[in-house]
Amino acid sequence: MSQEKFLEPWQLRAAFARSLSDMYGKEVPAYTTLLEVSHEVNADFVATHGADAERLGSIDRVTAERHGAIRVGTPTEISQVARIFGAMGMHPVGFYDLRDASSSSVPVISTAFRPIERDELARNPFRVFTSMLVPGDRRFFTRDQERRLDEFLAARRLFGPQLLRLADRAEAEGGLPAADAAEFLRLATEAFELSREPVDQAWYRELEGVSAVAADIGGVASTHINHLTPRVLDIDDLYARMTARGITMIPAIQGPPRWEGPDVLLRQTSFRALAEPRTFRTPDGQVIEDSLRVRFGEVEARGIALTREGRAAYDAAVAELDERAAGAGEAERQAIGREIWHRTFPVSETALADRGLGYFTYELLPDDGGGRAPHVVRAPVVYEDFLPRSAAGIFQSNLTDEGAKDAGQTGAERDDDWMAGALGRDLHDPFELYARQVERSRQATAATLGVDPE
Ligand code: OOG
Ligand code: NI
To answer: Which InterPro entries match (predicted)?
Structure first.
């Protein structure tokens, strides 16, 4: 019997991330520039910071690390997405309601598909932020628009039967033989390419009047990757280098300000969506060339995961910053941000751990041969998730206009249970995943030492 190579879920995930990245680089050349600059920033950071640079992930992991974003229309579509990502060991984590995440809002709810085990994350942390339209939300859509959206979405097919069959098989059998894996990866990548099919102009423009995101989801018969985001070790450096290359970035870095203390959660920025040629079918039946700006380049820096207490402090700090910096320029906003941060978070990582604001694991380091006895070190846990407010900011900064939301109308009830039902799977709570990782490290260290590391 021939020994055909068998690809496990993490190998499918790593290969998919690469294949999507190659495809997106061809479709959006500016993404390739972003990757180049990210590599420069990371290489320089490692050169100046040495081993410290790798405390929140090995340089191999960070170099390959990406997140993508996709947008779908219905529970059926998101449940199919869950099967495709399930084949790659990516599970739904977290519930994000972007409909009122900040002053800017978009008619979607979201989750992120990602690996949930520590060794799986270390092998390849690829994650995809996945948003689903809420046509039933009356603040955005009329009853008539909801009906037409439902009809349009029900008639389209984003993922073919062969792709879904292979996905189910991979999930059931813990991977795929090489030939099937290649077919699965080809079909999965193709499903997220930008379609050349003409777009119904009148329908697209009508939805755009509500929200550009609604048009991007419900105005076209296919889906596509919206952005792919590399991770950098110094986002301020990246921002400066991109600007020096003449690339216009959005005015701000979303998330925590730059400051002297430990980096927490997630900082993100992007360059504005680029005009891409698209064909439209006009109401009188003509096919014309025009362009759309929906896809952009984003980059992120990841910090330490915060506990519920830490996160509550973060949310309060952001709310205070918004209130006090309303109408202020970017420099002033940064200054106010740093002042609030100094009051909210300790400048030392040790204090962050001692005050129970961040997640830290315990590692037993062996005798280093240099006379140092085995000892326990506390290591920060990297934040693997997203921030709803930053996400809304990223969405909004790339929309051509604000869209229309009628705050007088009632929304549609959507929560994590509803999302789990749509997915047909468990929806993991990010805090529980981090806490479990900490607990396991504590138990492993305690078992070796015979005492609790704390
Ligand atoms: C998703 C926007 C959110 C992030 O990194 O927070 C996001 C989208 O534009 O579809 O990707
Ligand atoms: Ni993103």
So the answer is: HGLS, YdcJ_bac-like
Topology, domain 6-305+394-425: 2,3-Dihydroxybiphenyl 1,2-Dioxygenase; domain 1 (3.10.180)
SS3 446: helix
Number of Cβ within 10 Å of residue 387's Cβ equals 23
Identify the pLDDT of residue 101: 64
- CA of 69 from ligand 2 middle (Å) equals 6
Closest CA to 13 of 85, 113, 116: 85
Q: Examine the pLDDT at 75 and tell me if it is beyond 80.
A: yes
CA distance linking residue 89 with residue 201, whole number of Å:
38
CA angle 249, 252, 256 (to 5 degrees): 135
Q: Give bridge partners of residue 67 from the DSSP assignment.
A: 127, 229
194 CB under 6 A from ligand 1?
no
Q: Where are the domains of the chain?
A: 6-305+394-425
Residue whose CA is at the smallest distance from ligand 1 atom 10? 69
Gap from CA of 246 to ligand 2 centroid (Å)? 22
User: What residue's CA is closest to ligand 1, atom 4?
Assistant: 391
Whether 328 contacts 346, CB under 8 Å: no
DSSP string, 124-163: ---EEEEEEE-TT-TTT--HHHHHHHHHHHHH--SS-HHH
Contact 395 CB / ligand 1 (< 6 Å): yes
Please name the residue whose Cα sits nearest to atom 5 of ligand 1. 391
Is the beta carbon of 394 within 6 A of some atom in ligand 1? Answer: yes
Taking CA atoms only, the protein residue closest to ligand 1 atom 11 is: 69
Mutate to test the pocket of ligand 1, among 129, 130, 384 (most ligand atoms within 8 A of CB): 129
286-336 pLDDT tens trace: 999 998 888 888 999 999 999 999 999 999 999 999 899 888 888 898 899
Q: Among 394, 396, 398, which is best to mutate for testing ligand 1, by the most ligand atoms less than 8 A from CB?
A: 394
> What ipTM did this prediction achieve?
0.99
Backbone angles phi, psi at 266, to 5 degrees: -145, 130
pLDDT, tens only, 143-184: 999 999 999 999 999 999 999 999 999 999 999 999 999 999
Ligand 1 in contact with 14 (CB < 6 A)? no
In our burial notation (b when 16+ CB lie closer than 10 A, e otherwise), range 304-323 reads bbbbeebbebbeebbebbee
